[in-house]
Automatic annotation (TrEMBL):
InterPro entries associated with the record: BVU_3817-like_C_sf, BVU_3817_N_sf, DUF5606, DUF6852
Region of interest (Disordered), residue spans: 131-175
A Pfam family assignment: DUF5606
Residue spans of biased composition, Basic and acidic residues class: 139-175
Name by which UniProt lists this protein: DUF5606 domain-containing protein
Domain DUF6852: 54-123
Length: 175
């Protein structure tokens, strides 16, 4: 992945992008992706979309392209100065999208999506480092192993808790 989007999110009803810092009982602690970051809490009622889970539709219904790959394509073609923004014309936005992903689905990818893509890329490029595609897989494996280990511990802990709970109920019902 050329840029790590796992902790970056878009929150419905809130402008801009946010870095997810930690979970709370009723949501998550977030920090704006800006020059002067501000921390706040996003409640569970907000719809939070992690950027690493977002993909762009292609003409092949079985294939979508992850946002990180799209950002890499934009970075390859334009670097830091992209020719479009949220106020660009539809023709400019279409030409921009065709250059970075010629096979995108023109019926399911709306102009509003391309505008978001351009503004998100600008924010991400300004605040997150882009890495080489060959260097990232090693770093990607370590969190995956930790996550898997944590998941196994949680599952084991839940299974033990269930196992402990059952004998107590059985003993009480036997008496």
């Amino acid at each position: 992945m050329p840029v790590d989007l796992r902790e970056i999110a878009s929150i419905s009803g809130m402008p801009g992008l946010y870095r997810i810092l930690s979970p709370t009982r009723s949501g998550v602690i977030i920090e704006t992706l800006a020059d002067n970051p501000v921390r706040s809490a996003a409640q569970a009622k907000h719809r939070i979309s992690l950027l690493h889970e977002i993909s762009i539709y292609t003409n092949n219904p079985d294939v979508t392209i992850p946002l990180s790959d799209i950002f890499d394509s934009i970075n390859t073609h334009y670097g830091e100065n992209i020719p479009v923004n949220a106020k660009s014309s539809n023709q400019e936005l279409s030409a921009f999208m065709e250059k970075i992903l010629p096979d995108y689905d023109r019926e399911r990818v709306y102009m509003s999506d391309i505008k978001k893509l351009a503004s998100w890329y600008t924010l991400v490029k300004k605040h997150l480092p882009f890495t080489e595609a060959t260097a990232q897989p090693e770093a990607e494996e370590k969190p995956a192993k930790k996550t898997k280990a944590k998941a196994e511990k949680v599952e084991a802990g839940e299974d033990e808790a269930k196992a402990e709970a059952k004998p107590k109920k059985t003993k009480k019902s036997a008496e």
